[in-house]
Known about the structure:
Elements: E1 3-8, H1 15-20, E2 24-27, E3 30-33, E4 36-39, H2 46-52, E5 58-61, H3 65-77, E6 82-87, H4 95-103, E7 110-115, H5 120-135, H6 140-153, E8 155-161, H7 165-169, E9 186-192, E10 198-205, H8 207-222, E11 227-233, H9 237-250, E12 253-260, H10 263-269, E13 273-280
Amino acid sequence: MKIAVITDSSSNLSFEYINKIKNLDMMPLMISFKDKFYRDQIEIDYETVYNNLDNQKITTSLPDLSDFTKSIRNFIADGYTDILVITISSKLSGTYNAFKVAAKEYDEVNIHMYDSKTLAMTLGYLVEDAIQSINSNYSITEIINRLDDLRFNNSIALYTVETLKYLRKGGRIGKVEGTVGDILAIKPIISVSDEGVYYTVGKAFGVNRALITMRNIVKKKYGNSLIDVTIHYGTSIDKAEKVASKMSAELHIRNINIVQLTPVLGVHTGPEIIAFIVRKV
């Protein structure tokens, strides 16, 4: 058995990581800007998206299926017997279902679909775990069981935003209360449910209080356990660095990374997002 992995750009994995893993490929989601479609991070950059959210119509779309089918054909040509496709939550994007339909055209390779029910570096951590499991010669069943354990038991995603208008505009509001964030500077603390939709886990007066509450949620969940942390930001890197410093002092962290949120997700959160992505080591 020779196993490859395909994911999408919402995983927020770096190109440095993706390019050094021979059995991994990333499908960029698409961003519509000035009536043209661009591949996330490849054909359009962070600054263009974040700087124009309020003065241009910017929307997102599925990856180009020709990218997906080309990737499958390349892996088949390289002798891979199995391909594990790990995508953004099917409740937040049509990517999973589109890939599932396209995958049915290939009988010469076993394609295993995995709906992560999440996004951003929570998805990225799942991809990293899958690659590690493949390198350890786990079977597909064992790999998927490990992914389920990481996704539903040993990881968490939390974020807060300055305004919910971008989530509303993109139709990604999920179970987040539509009025929170616009009244009395109350900021929502948002997570992703086991069903793969956004929901509110708490509220705070102002972003700074929200960030404190988010740290407390992480401390309560993980205690003294060793964890990895990714802090996503839109444009507020200074705020992300301050948060990273505080988390490093308060928690038992193996690795902490500050990573700008990929533009295709930033369209829906807006520039003033701070997210904590945590996994138990």
